[in-house]
Amino acid sequence: MELFYKSTRGNAPKVTASAAILKGLAEDGGLYVPERIPMLDHSMREFSEMSYQETAREVMKLYLTDYTMEELTDCVEKAYDDKFDTDRIAPLRDAGGAAFLELFHGKTIAFKDMALSILPHLMTAAARKCGTEKEIVILTATSGDTGKAALAGFADVPGIRILVFYPKNGVSPIQERQMVTQRGANTRVVGIHGNFDDAQTGVKRLFSDAALRERMNQMGFQFSSANSINIGRLVPQIVYYVYAYAQMQKTGRIADGEEINVAVPTGNFGNILAAYYAKCMGVPIGRLLCASNENKVLFDFLTTGIYDKNREFVLTSSPSMDILVSSNLERLIYQAAGEDAEKNGALMRQLSSEGRYAVTDEMRARLSDFYGNYASEAECAAKIRSLYESDGYVIDPHTAVAAAVYDKYRVQTGDDRKTLIVSTASPFKFTRSVMTAIDAKYDAMDDFALVDRLSALSGVPVPAAIEEIRTAPVLHDIQCGKSEMEQAVLDFLQ
Question: pTM value?
């Protein structure tokens, strides 16, 4: 049965999965959501005998119904190959009383690789299916990890160009160097003078600019996105929750059908939304622990029912979560509103005009699966240090936020269900924050000396993604103001 996609704002036509992936964002500014969330058609025991690649195909076929099995198999095999440094793709590691799902074994050592390794293949297949003759321009804002993963995925892909905006001075040194050394004749990276929310708002504005869209059309281009606003990013993320639960069951960490909790460090809300979709599909997930850093807009929302971005923007050691406008939350708000596009649209317009909105008590009741909390910078550092001292396990600051929130949840609720903590990035991407958390003396060392010291401490070889940027030349040194993003796009295309 074919599954179509509709806009959360209700003023755009329904489209197929391939069309939704190509468009990225609906014409009315809404996000594409499936008409229904499909149920899994295999038991968790059956999934436990599948490889990651097989799991991906079986889960994604339920959402991408206009792709043939041959097309999906081809996309999966090209995406989840030897660019990952482990055959399991997403291995589990036990530490601190929880199971850590390591999603950083891909080419750019961050969880964004899990979806951005397959999105270029899904998109090129979609272009063939939809018969588009225009060159696709991927326009993406990044808080640090999406940018590099998208650049690596789309570099030199025929018929596609990619432009990434990132907040200058708002990402880690390693994250920035990964992006500005990116090769590929079809790539460009631009640092904006502002924060991630400025970059994300600017990209959304460009997508919804009808005059620019028409100009692009005349030039033979069409926009698409590699952010998690693209349903082609969100669907592959559901896969690893299905896979992780099945592997926990297979390895005896949990019994058949036993409920687990999931702790996810999140800023833009896409990763935890994927876990929620997995739960709705039948994965036995109990509570969804939404872990924020000091930019705790999601914690405050889940606590009060009021979303308010009118606050100080804090630069933290977990920069990929330094976000005050969580774009993917709109998909959940739409569902909590009973799929009332008019009600959802009114809330999003209020967010745009006033910077805040409040949901009804009825809507809040529909969010009861979620628990929100946050970790301060000191709590994050303390968790990195304590986990290293107790288990010899080194985690990055984003994962530390989730682990710290997991600790708070257990104390507050007494809920001792097995918990899956989503580990979203390699500690090698944030060496200074990690090493100084373990011991302040390391702050005197330079970044790449810290990389080598971290390798010695953890017993983990330096990832290829880090080795290759030690001496790589800077190829992108363009910067622009928040108001100059459209011109930066036109300069790239011309």
Answer: 0.94
